[in-house]
Each structure stands twice: as C-alpha cells, then as structure tokens.
Amino acid sequence: MFSIRTDLAVEARELYKDGHAGEIPGVSIDEKEEDGIKVVKVSILNDEGAKAMGKPIGDYITIEAPDLRYRDIELEDKVAQKLADVIKEISNVNVNIKTLVIGLGNWNVTPDALGPKVIENIVVTRHLKELAPLQFGDNICSVSAMAPGVLGITGIETAEIVKSIVDKIKPDLVITIDALASRRIERLATTIQISNTGISPGSGIGNKRSAINMESLGVPVVAVGVPTVVDAATIANDAIDHLESTLIKNTTSNSPLYNVLKNMDKEDKYALIKEVLSPDENLIVTPKEIDLLIKNISSILSRGINLALQPNLTVDEMNQLVH
Amino acid sequence: MFSIRTDLAVEARELYKDGHAGEIPGVSIDEKEEDGIKVVKVSILNDEGAKAMGKPIGDYITIEAPDLRYRDIELEDKVAQKLADVIKEISNVNVNIKTLVIGLGNWNVTPDALGPKVIENIVVTRHLKELAPLQFGDNICSVSAMAPGVLGITGIETAEIVKSIVDKIKPDLVITIDALASRRIERLATTIQISNTGISPGSGIGNKRSAINMESLGVPVVAVGVPTVVDAATIANDAIDHLESTLIKNTTSNSPLYNVLKNMDKEDKYALIKEVLSPDENLIVTPKEIDLLIKNISSILSRGINLALQPNLTVDEMNQLVH
Amino acid sequence: MFSIRTDLAVEARELYKDGHAGEIPGVSIDEKEEDGIKVVKVSILNDEGAKAMGKPIGDYITIEAPDLRYRDIELEDKVAQKLADVIKEISNVNVNIKTLVIGLGNWNVTPDALGPKVIENIVVTRHLKELAPLQFGDNICSVSAMAPGVLGITGIETAEIVKSIVDKIKPDLVITIDALASRRIERLATTIQISNTGISPGSGIGNKRSAINMESLGVPVVAVGVPTVVDAATIANDAIDHLESTLIKNTTSNSPLYNVLKNMDKEDKYALIKEVLSPDENLIVTPKEIDLLIKNISSILSRGINLALQPNLTVDEMNQLVH
Amino acid sequence: MFSIRTDLAVEARELYKDGHAGEIPGVSIDEKEEDGIKVVKVSILNDEGAKAMGKPIGDYITIEAPDLRYRDIELEDKVAQKLADVIKEISNVNVNIKTLVIGLGNWNVTPDALGPKVIENIVVTRHLKELAPLQFGDNICSVSAMAPGVLGITGIETAEIVKSIVDKIKPDLVITIDALASRRIERLATTIQISNTGISPGSGIGNKRSAINMESLGVPVVAVGVPTVVDAATIANDAIDHLESTLIKNTTSNSPLYNVLKNMDKEDKYALIKEVLSPDENLIVTPKEIDLLIKNISSILSRGINLALQPNLTVDEMNQLVH
C-alpha cells in the first residue's frame, strides 16, 4: 500500500488528522511561535499514540523557520540558539557529561550528506580534556564526533559502528544528526526536528538502519534531523489527490463519477504512481539549489549543537578549537 | 500554459506525436540500434519543422544506452566511441582545426555541474602546439577548454564570456557540454544528445541564456548534452494524465465523468500542478544516486570528445596530457 | 645564479638591504603598526627604484598580522577592514564604477587555489544592476567576478582571457587575487600585499604569465596577493647561509677558513642547492595545515574586497547576494 | 638531537649505513628489479635489528617505481599487480577470510588524505555476503572499509576506534593505508611500503598514534604506506651536509677548517636548522603538483588492494560494486 513518506512527527500527525476527526489519542501537542520561528512539540505518551503515529514513545520538537530559505544572519542565530535550548531541554546535557555526536548519512550523496557536514564544524574536545585536563579542565564539555558512513560504503551497519564506539568510549549522551524525508517541499532545509527517542529502523532518507537509541546503546540518544528531500511518489500522490478532490467538488454526490472516485482505493492510486515513476527507482524531489540550502542549515546545526554542549566558550574560543 | 519541459529533440517529437497523427512535417527521423545502444537522428529540415518542434533547423542525434545506469566498462567504451563518431559526423573536426570546448553550467549545483566536470578531463593542447610546435606538431589537434560559470556566479552572461573568448582565440569549432532536462526519468545520465545547432535561449536546466551558436559566434557550434533532471511539474503532470486516462478507460463515452475529464483543459491541469508544487520553486526530480551517475557519464563524455579531437593519440598519451 | 624567490616588495627590499648600506634609491618606505597589524607601504618612485627592486613603479602596501595563524574573529574583522581601506586608498573605487574581480591560480593545486576560493564569496552584482536597475539602482556597485584557470587547464594564457573579458564588458577597475611566494615561512597566509601595478610576467607561484596591468588592459589593476608557499630552494639557501655565518663568526679573519667561506660565490651555493633538491622539481615548503590556513585567509580577502566594493550593503544583504 | 625523519625501512637502513660499515646486524636485505619496478625486502630478524632500525621485527617490502611521476597506464597496472602480489605474499589473504581495510589520516590535509582517498575505491562486500550469501557466496571475499579520521577531528584515538570496530566485527586481517614521510623527494608518491608489522606509535605524518598491530588488535595487520612529504628540516639538514662535505673536500685534513667542521656536532647542526625554520612549525616539502600525484597513487593502491582481496572478480564486477 502507498503511504506518504515522512520522518517528521508533525507530518505524521497531519496525515493522521487528514483521515480522522479530533486529536490523536495518546499524543499531546504544544505549539508556540515567536520571531518567525514556530516550535511544535509532539509528545507521544503511550503505546496507542505510538501505534497511531508509527513512531516510538517520546518527545519530538520541531523548529520551523520558513525564512531560512533566504539568508538572514539574525534569524540563523536565533534558530541556532533555539536548537541549543531544545537540546538542553530534552537531554541531560551539562558541562560534566561526555557527549558523542554522530553525523549519519552518505557524504557522496548531496541530500544525504547533512550529518557528515555538521560533524565538520563540531567543537571536539574529548582529547583535550584527557591530554591536558589542567588547561581545559572544568570549563569545557567532553565532546567527540564521528561520521560513520553508510552500509554501502563501509560494509558495516552504521548502528554496529556506533554501538562499538559507544561501548569503547562510554559517553553519557549521543546526539545523532541525519537528513530526513518530508512530505512538504517548503520544509526542506527550513525545519529541524529534535527528539529524545533516537533513530529507529527505517528512518532517514537512506537504506533501512538498525536502531540507534537508548535501548540499543544504553545511553540517551537525541536525534537531530532536517528534511532535505521529498519522495517523488509524494508529489505524484499529491497531484492525484488534488485532481480527485477537484473532480469531486465539481460533481454531485449521486453521480457515477463521484462513486468511481470515492471507490478508487489506495491500491489503485499506488499502482498509478508506480506507473508514472520507474518502479525500481529511488526518486527524490529537491529545489535546484539544494546544495546551498544544505550548506546553510548544516552551519546552523553545528552552531546550535556547539552552543548546547559548550556554554562556557566564546565564539572565538570555539573557532580556535574547530579543526 | 503548462508545457512539458524537455531539451531533447526525441522527446519534443514524442510530445508532438502524442497529440497528432503521423510524423511531424519538416522533420525526418532515422533510428538504429546496435549493441544495446540506440541512435536516433532527428533532422529538422525547414521552418515548419522548427516551429512544430520548438527548436532550430539542424540535426539532433541521440545516443541512448539505458544500461549505463549499471557500471559496465565495455558499454561505456562503446558509448564514448559512438559519441566520438557522431561528433566527427556532425562537425568539421579534423587534426588541422582549432577547437574550443565549453563546459556550461554551475559547478555548485550537483545536477548542473556536468559541463564543468567534463572540462576537467579534456585533453588541452592549444598552448603546447603554440609553445612547442616542433614537439607536438601536426600530430595533435589544438584544443582549449573552459567552464565559464553561470550568470549568478560571474555577473556576466555566459554567452558574452564565450563570445569574447572566441573573438580572441578564433577557434574553428566550438563544442559545448550542458546538463539538460528530460521528461523521462530513465533517460537521466543514460542519454546523450549531440546537435549541430548550438545552444539557443532558454535551453539547459539553468537560467535563460543567450544563444551560443553559429550566428552569434561565427563558427560552427556542436552542443553535447545529457539530461540530469526531470522537472517536478512533469512528474505531477504525468500522474494526473495517468489518472485521467485510467478514469476514462473505466467509463463510457456518454457518461458525465467522461465529459468532465475530456473537457478539463490544460489550464485547469496547470493550476492543479501549481497547487501541488510551491509556486516559486525550481523543483527537480532526480534519482538519489545522481552524484554518482553524473560522475560516470561525465567521464564517458570527456573520453568521447578526446577521441574525436585527438585521433592520433593513445590513451596513455592522453592521460599524460590531462592536467 | 640563485636568487631568493619572493613576490613581496617588502622582502625584495629586505634582500636589497642585506647586501647594501642605506635605503634603496628611488624607493620610499612608510611603516605603521596598530592593533597587532603592521602596514608597510613600499613606493617605487622611478626607474632606478624599479631596477633595484625588480618590480614596476607603483605602490605596494603590505598588511602583516602574524596572529592570523590562530583563529581570532576580531583580528580577522580588523584585517578585512584594513584591506578594504587600502583598496579604497590605492584605487578609484566608488559606487559608480564597474569592477571586475579576477581570481588567478589553479583550483586543483592547494596552495595556488587562493584566487578561485576568494571569487566564490565575492558579492556579484553586475547582472542585478543591468536586469533590475530600479531595484538595485544606485545603492550597489557593479561587480563581476571570474576565475579564469591557468594555461595548463585551459590552453589559453590567463592574460588573454582577462583581456578578452575586459574588452567585452569594459570595467573601470580590475582587482586580481593571487597566491604568492614568500621567503619567510611566518608570512604564509598572514600577510596581504596590495599594489596598484597589476600582475607582471613571472609573478605568482604558477607558471610565467603575461602582464595583467594598466598597460595591457587599459584600466587600473589592483593586485591583491597572499604568500602561500616558500620555495624549497629558499630553505636550503637559508640553511647554508646560517652555517656560513656561524662558521665565520667562529674563526678569525686571517684564517684560511674565513677566506674559503668569503670566496665561496653564489654560483657555488646554487650548485649545492641544486644537488640537495632534485633538479627538475618545483618543490615548495608549507605548514602541514596549509589547507586550513588558505581557507581562513581567503575568507578574509573576500570580506575585505566586498567591504571595499559595496560600502552601502549590510553584512546580511551581502550574504543574500552571495551565490 | 636532530634525526632525519623517515617512515621507510629502506631509508632507515640507508641512514644506518651512512654512519656504519657493513650491513646492519639482525637485518636481511633482498633486492629485485624488473620492468622499471624495484622491490626491496628489508627483514628485521631480531631485537638487535629492531633496535638498530628503530622499527619492530617483521618484513618491510618496498615497491619503487620512479616513473610513476609521469602518467603511464601500463606501469600503473604493473605496480597495482605487484602490490597485490606482495599483500598476498605477506599476509593470510584468501577468499574465506574477512578483511577490514582502514584508511588512516586526515582528509582535510592534502598530503595526509591518502588513506581516506584509497578507501573510497575499495570494493566493499561484507554486507553483500551477509545479506545475500547465496548470490555472492563463495566467490567474493568479505571486505569492510573505514576512514576513522584523526584525533583532532574525532576527539578519539584512531587506535581506539579501530580496536572497537575490530572487536565488534572480528575480521581475520586488517590492512591499513597511511601517508608517510620520506627523506627523499624522489620517493614521494612513487614508492609503496608494505609491512606485516602494522602501525607503531609515532609513525605516519600526523600526530603520534597508539599502535595498530597484532598485539593491540589480536589479528594480523598489514600496513601499506606511501611517502607524500619530506620534512623541511630534512631539506635544511641535507643542504648543510652538502656544504660541509664540499668544504671538507676542498681543504686538507690538518687545516683548522677541517677540524672546525669535523668537530661540529649534531647538536650544533640541529640548532642551526631550528634557526632557519620557525621553531613551532610543522613544515613539509612537497612537489607543487602533490594533489595530482596523490590522486594517481591512491588509485593504484585501491586497485592493488582490490586485486589482492577479490581474485575472483573481473574489473567490471569490481566497478559495479564500488559505491
């Protein structure tokens, strides 16, 4: 059966609400908007909510700033600061813990390279604290960082690599960064989702992955993600939906047309979509300037994470520590 | 009005034939297939053909090799050789002429970077012939190469840059390489179009450009192009078309449904598509692995062009000359 | 004969003074230091000065900030501002003129890629002023930019390309950016030379180039350069010089040793150096972290040039205009 | 005390022989030359040899092909095949074992990026054998690959990362690839050293690293390395040595000069060298075209390793499997 592909909890909720009346049982919503930034917290409270949403129990906070599409340094600073605030709110971050930041995804595939790009600008300090504890002492948080690559590049499940590093260096917190799929073009590179559930199998725009979460690693995992693609099937589906509803609007409920359309089930639609798109393809839709958009949002992510993890450092000190 | 975006003459012909019976007036077609490579020559013979096709009078030869999607060195060699043959057939190439190869497009935008990538591996010899005529003498063809960038990067129309270089160094032939838009996913990075008409305004996946052709430059221009994207609007349109024809098939010609669908004109469809896609976006559809596909096809293009321009050099000699 | 390779006027002066008493005839010097930035203006006033210095008549202003080696945002801002001031002082820059910025050098060779890297972040506006004069009107300066590549990549002399573009778009000012050779390691990526003489044959770390100057182009040319390499021969020469002077210090002027050393002429030394270094090599000395140093200084150069050319734009507006 | 920096066993031997008569005790040498390729096997047989050489007991095989400096496809093929032969000779490679290939070094530092670059083209198959054992079955060797980065980038000792992956996926063989320092310019990117001793602390051009060897990992480690830099101090030292020996040759053994020179000890020379080079710098000497040379040699290394690990695959099959 065809289902709209999305990794965002806010969109899973929208999709649910399309077909149902009222809010989702077992899910609570909190929305705020300030300074052109909308923050939505979707909390999945119990198994009923998890089943309805197709996602594990936990908090999913979305920072949406559509104007990120246009360069605006002040807005970028605010979003980075908001990301830092959310990470601090949702995790056990403090200056005494050790954090491992993991940039998921494939650096050879433009829209999947977000995680590795963010890693490049994370302030890495674990070795400094260990090698020169007197000099770097209590002021900085121990941070290590890694882009483990993807299965096709290493031959090793990403989750296996992360698990083995975690077992070895024993961080208190893992933060993952990943490129996501959205159902809405306007969210690409302008929306950040932060959750305390980690990464579950099947998420992300790449191949299926094993879980990277509290259960598998034994430490809390904060997952930071940004949508960078929309599935081409989503666009085809949306086009068909629009035509359907237009036709339905223009006809009466007792006409044969109305009945044909109403009775066209999801299977038929999916078959149509598969005919439009070559069946074996992994087709994605992006704005033409996606390379630039990813560059900008990855810079915001690394700033936000650095702010969350290194509250005692100035921007200058961070710059000196970035490799 | 919505019109399917394509830069390929073979697709312009397909689109024409969708709505008309018989072959296009003023256009001749020649098709051959050998070794998994299909070669189609579309010749626009007169103004009538040019108008029907929306393209200038001239020859458009398409090399289609769908299996290029899978690495196959032997097929790649054959396609490179076929490209060389077509360039020789369609142009005045010989060892005594001076050729300027121009890689069009924006190197910062993955699917538009094809031209600049090809330029990187062109065997450039003009300076060698001029500086050491006795050593390199009559054996090599004088070739220069350049990737002029795009208007947004330089502030200068690409056509202006090319024109000023051509006026200065006076080549006998210009070969342009450009990324194109196709209407069919399966043609991405597997089809090469070679034409003797140069580049006309509005072609290519980038912004509108001024002409780069015999008329503007005063020398013959061979345009080599490979589709690297499909417009997202094309996918949406195809989805709607499929739904329409499915609905029509399932109804009788005297039903109201049939009439509604038959009477839905192109304007309505375009409005629908614009609703599905954000109106101000330049949305493209690509396979997820487009970075890799472009890398492979650009290597085939540079080999084919080198073979056409340097018939007296061995592969080893070419390698030594590639910077 | 061996001669120390340097593209910096301040170093040419140092070398002259090593062998001569007093200041160089026909050359005036002005030195200032402020905030950890030393600014030295070497003015070559007449043919006598030009001959002694091996450089054309004109002003050569050097901004030296050794602490750029360590990331320091405030210092970087000051150096960018100082660069803007010097460009404004030394040229005819104002909001009504048209400027063409040229990034010289080979983007495939790390220490030679400075110019092309700077170009990436120049605010390019020529097309905006031409296409939307009402919107962008009098507030912005018309700027175009280009990295023409090097002879080995294009087969065309860089000077030919620049000349043909200048003839076509007729700017009022050309600014070139180039990687230079220094004789002192500590100047690499920490010193900027700005001159109003343009580029003369043989300058730069690449191959010999034809002139890019007022005489060849017909418009003023400001050359901005940063040393990124020291010749390996310079290091070998310095080692030998140090040994010589140590030996001389440790002996008396009537000893045979003293005479051997005093009589060892430059030819002998050069032969020695050629034996140490393979004769056919183009060997360079750089700090291991040169990739990072070049990244930092190129960002300072683009900011400084943007500040000089676009005095009416805020940083945000510049960011929005950078492609 | 100053000591010439080299990671090559053949050079450690040369240095020893400079100061001593006869062969090194506890070290055996075997030299062959064929087709422009010289293969030297230095075997350190016991503790005495290990102490004299400053390297662990084991075999160090050097493949030297000076003509690699010039592109020559046939020679490149021969060197790749020779590398495959040496890996097979020196290790337990066969189709039934599992191999992990590790690309050491910093991808942001041109001459240190060799290891990561080689990894990009290793045929990775571990996941295919595990996910589709029937399809890929006994024909292919299980290979995984990884570029773990360096301490400054990850905050984690490279040896720690490798150890944790090895403990997790339990390969039968580890192959490391690393950029080395040589004392001779002409060996840069033209010499390959293969040893069965793994990597010991202090090797490589980067920072000191913990051991990656049989003892630390529990599996055999084959280390493949290519020199990409010469220390600037080596060049300075060589210059001084040449001057010394020239002066000594030109004087008589009872002159004061002779005595001064003979009595100048290594400490004095080191002090001189430190004066020539800034004391806190990590200065390296490379040919200007080092980026290109590293690109070529890394392609040879990946081909050689693929040939050794996948004897049953054709080149086409390998290409299809390279990501």
From TrEMBL, chains A, B, C, D:
Initiates the rapid degradation of small, acid-soluble proteins during spore germination. Autoproteolytically processed. The inactive tetrameric zymogen termed p46 autoprocesses to a smaller form termed p41, which is active only during spore germination. Residues 1-7 form a propeptide. InterPro entries: Pept_HybD-like_dom_sf, Peptidase_A25. The gene is gpr. It comes from Thermoanaerobacterium thermosaccharolyticum. Keywords: Hydrolase, Protease, Zymogen. HAMAP family: Germination_prot. Pfam families: Peptidase_A25 (PF03418). Its EC number is 3.4.24.78. This is Germination protease. It catalyses: Endopeptidase action with P4 Glu or Asp, P1 preferably Glu > Asp, P1' hydrophobic and P2' Ala. Homotetramer. GO terms for molecular function: metalloendopeptidase activity. GO terms for biological process: proteolysis; spore germination. Belongs to the peptidase A25 family.
